[in-house]
Amino acid sequence: MIKYWIKELQPVSDIIRLNVEGMTCDHCQTTVSKALSEAGLEAVEADWRRGTASGRPAEDFTEERAAEQLEAVGYRLAGVEKPDTASDVEPNDVGYDLAIIGGGSAAFAAAIKASELGGRVAMIERGTIGGTCVNIGCVPSKALLRAADHYHRAGHSPFAGVETATGQVDLSTLVTQKDRLVDTMRQEKYEDLVDIYGFDVIQGEARFTGPDRLEVDGRPVRADRFLIATGATPWTPPIEGLDDAGYLTSTTALELTELPGELVVIGANAIGLELGQLYLHLGSRVAFVEALDRIAPFEEPEISELLTAHLESLGAEIITSANITKAGRAGDRRFIEAHIGETSRRIEADEILVATGRRARTEDLGLHAAGVEVDRRGHVIVDDRMVTSNPKILAAGDVTTVPQFVYVAALTGSIAAENALRPPRRQLDLTTMPRITFTTPPIASVGLTEAQAREAGHQVIISVLPLEAVPRALVDHDTTGLVKLVADETTGRLLGAHILAEGAGDVIQAAVVAIKYQATVDEIADTFHPYLTMAEALKLAAQAFRKDVAHLSCCAA
Question: Which of 4, 28, 190, 386 is an active site residue?
Fold first, then answer.
């Protein structure tokens, strides 16, 4: 069973859980928590996604009072449960080999690895187990992206004689389905693992009070090593009037139950592009506003150019080199004002989505007292062994300076745990780290861009293959995309692969392996790639270094 301590680290036997019907958002959590506090429940923790609230009942608490207080604010008490009380050990009476702050992907990877190595592990989480990916990030966003893609395709069949049509979008029902998926995956992929691996979970706020001292809600938790894995949260630039206007983040954009007629997306990197296209596919009119001179600004320029044209063909507006100076609201409408070159422009919409990146959750952790250095954005500085400036404290995942991908978070968590319990020898190598942007078509990249390769001193050769040269794309009547390969001219070794195409996220794995084992483009061209798959695009792009693939027969070697 999961060993929980809530707020003041009371034993789990003092805690009750209430099932509450009617919660649909973060505001509901706040309202329910206040109502239950007035009913005599102390240290309340409400979770709208799970439909639960928990806390420690005071002497004057009764279920009847709780039901009355909830009913008064529009919610219903559906039942009260007392958790399993098999353990009432206070965490300050236990010495751990590793205490992990956070309960997301990096934290769980670390807890699993440390447990497998025989360590006694505590995980400290102030909110909902599972972190960003399963709760408010990868899982819910990709579920909605897939749904939106299905809806769009239903209204845009490329095949003669095959008529399709779309109905109305019931966003509320779609979001409910998404929430059920999140609940299931959080239970199966996170909560159930606590019992399987046998580590303790402590609920509460963690704070360092010294280089080797940690407290949770004011009570000490002793450990030989500590791991910071508190993740990151959406960052909003300081735009005048934005708070008053009201805006969506990558979290709240996944909670809308009504489709906005018009949406302005501030930021056109991965998150902004994904969520903007989600609503574009569902029928919203979308404007992407980017401060840099192109969308997908960290991808190859050929990809940015082609994706711009594709989004515009779907009805999106692309605005780049924009300096947003002000935001505001007029009735139900919101607006931003921006300088674009020599001109100024006001852009109105029903909703504003801010997708300008994420910043580390390091506030109130007491990192100064712990001697842990952070960069100017608050991200914990680590070496390639995930060790901070304090050798007793490690850090992993999005809270650090490493790239913010869930698979990187998991790997760094595993590395950190192993280095915490054993001599710190295992190192992080990002040479073959792929990145995917789940647009339609998706972007997938690994290795160096052409510019990066030249800056690194390579004599570079490139191949850019349009999807019109790929039989799979022709058969699908979907030729939007390209494959760009970057290679060293002297050795022929593949340095980078960059794909905009249906299935790009799967195809890129072959390039990951090729770069890992220092394959040349000739070796890639001479390797079997099955015909009429998108994987063949990689072979054709490699062949294009030596020959004109337009003059090859189908499946020609």
Answer: 28
What is each CA distance from 39 to 30, 35, 64, 74, in whole angstroms?
14, 6, 9, 15
Q: Are 277 and 311 in contact (CB under 8 A)?
A: yes
The three-class DSSP label of residue 291 is: coil
Instruction: Note the Cα 180 to chain centre separation in Å.
Output: 18
Say which of 185, 433, 531, 554 is annotated catalytic.
554
Task: Please name the amino acid found at residue 182.
Answer: V
- What is the distance between the alpha carbons of residues 280 and 331, in angstroms, rounded to a whole number? 24
Active-site residue identified among 4, 23, 386, 534: 23
Catalytic residue among 96, 123, 138, 433: 138
pLDDT at 94 over 70: no
517 catalytic per annotation: no
The answer to whether 75 is a known catalytic residue is yes
- Reply yes or no on whether 554 is catalytic: yes
For residue 347, what are the contacts with CB-CB under 8 A and spacing of at least 6? 264, 287, 289, 319, 335, 336, 337, 338
Is residue 183 very low, low, confident or very high in pLDDT (cuts 50, 70, 90)? very high
Output the pTM of the full model. Answer: 0.82
Closest CA to 122 of 11, 6, 225: 225
Two structure tokens written together for 149: 């893609």
Dihedral of alpha carbons 44, 47, 48, 54, sign: negative
How far apart (Å, rounded) are the C-alpha atoms in residues 427 and 419? 9
pLDDT(452) > 90: yes
Is 190 one of the catalytic residues? no
**Distances, alpha carbon 134 to alpha carbons 437, 456, 521, 531, in Å:** 17, 37, 37, 35
Cβ–Cβ < 8 Å for 554, 531: yes
The mean pLDDT value of the chain amounts to: 92
Confidence of residue 52 (pLDDT cuts 50, 70, 90): confident
Outline where DSSP puts E strands in 95-150: 95-101, 121-125
pLDDT at 556: 66
Out of 123, 133, 386, 534, pick the active-site residue: 133
Q: Are 331 and 315 in contact (CB under 8 A)?
A: no
Whether the pLDDT of residue 42 is over 80: the answer is: yes
Residue labelled with tokens 């394959």:
519
Tokens at 173, concatenated: 């029902």
Q: Which amino acid is at 164?
A: T
Of the chain, the end-to-end C-alpha distance in Å amounts to 58
Known catalytic residue at 25: yes
Interatomic CA distance for residues 99 and 337, integer angstroms? 47
The two three-digit tokens of residue 167, written as one number? 């109905």
Domains, the chain, in order of start with CATH, read 12-81 (3.30.70.100), 91-233+360-421 (3.50.50.60), 242-354 (3.50.50.60), 434-551 (3.30.390.30)
Is 279 one of the annotated active-site residues of the chain?
no
334 has pLDDT over 60? yes
228 closest CA partner among 422, 364, 128: 364
133 counts as catalytic: yes
pLDDT at 553: 82
Q: Is the model's pLDDT at 86 over the cut of 60?
A: no
